[in-house]
Amino acid sequence: MGKAVRKVVIPVAGMGTRFLPVTKAVPKELLPVGTVPILHVVVEEALASGVEEVVLVTSPDKASVADYFRSDTAYDKRLNALKKEAMLESLRQITGRARFTTVTQDEPRGLGHAIHCAKKAVGDEPFLIILPDVIIESKAPCCGQLVDAYEKTGCAVNATEHTPREKLHLYGIYDLSSSDGRFHRARGVVEKPTAEEAPSDLSVVGRYLFPPDLFSILDNTPPGRGGEIQLADAMNELALNGRMIAYEYEGMQFDTGDPLGFLKANIFYGRRNNEVEVDAFMREVMGEKGRGPETRTAINE
Fold this sequence. Notes:
Layout: E1 7-11, E2 32-33, E3 36-37, H1 38-48, E4 53-58, H2 63-67, H3 74-81, H4 89-95, E5 99-104, H5 111-116, H6 119-122, E6 127-130, E7 134-137, H7 142-153, E8 156-162, E9 172-180, E10 183-191, E11 202-210, H8 214-219, H9 231-240, E12 244-248, E13 252-255, H10 259-273, H11 275-285, H12 293-300
Parallel strand pairs: 1-4, 1-6, 4-5, 8-12
Antiparallel strand pairs: 2-3, 6-11, 7-13, 8-11, 9-10, 10-12
């Protein structure tokens, strides 16, 4: 089959403007789901899929993203001095299992450009891409599902799912030439079509697996929409040569780059970890215990 999939590229250079004002000081990738940053969650998925190296594509003013995975910061040293280093054990469990590499995207020139910045770090081997806004809850890690599909097909494999017609205009949508169960051979990707123009209802999800020649394609990809280098344009080049599979992953996604999606993720994982307490709280605030609006007002004060 060739080289194993050992590396993941995670672009984290975005400004997170939809979460202002908090993202003026805190990178959106470090916003928490519960007490664990979004970035931590997706890195765990990658490691559970066999990844050995995490390549973070960051910007000059987001050093705190890379600092999260360091063990020699002033904060770490202070915890060690207080004999409280065990409080970071969940983080140590992932930093001890993978190498973390940081590359810099000096200016925002599109997702394709961000990925191209990782060319040297990835080298001549297949690699995964995770868009950290997207958390995927699944029994088998989504990235692992893509690796299995890649080993069967030898093609670029990207996650996809069926999308309601009224939301098709929000996503890239796959144009398909054939389908076999969860495997859909793609002719290309249409960016944010109307429901009438959409060639299918299968949307692009934030998980990708590419062969190393994606970088040579990006070398020759001119700026597209918005003057940016678009990853979708490089994907279409692979698709034209019959080398791209849209794979229907098993699982459920949370788009934490959207404020409502971020809230849903926190509710879902908060309830999963504290089901009895959360359900009791919701009954209380909804007045289901016969305690009228006075109680609800007090809780909100």
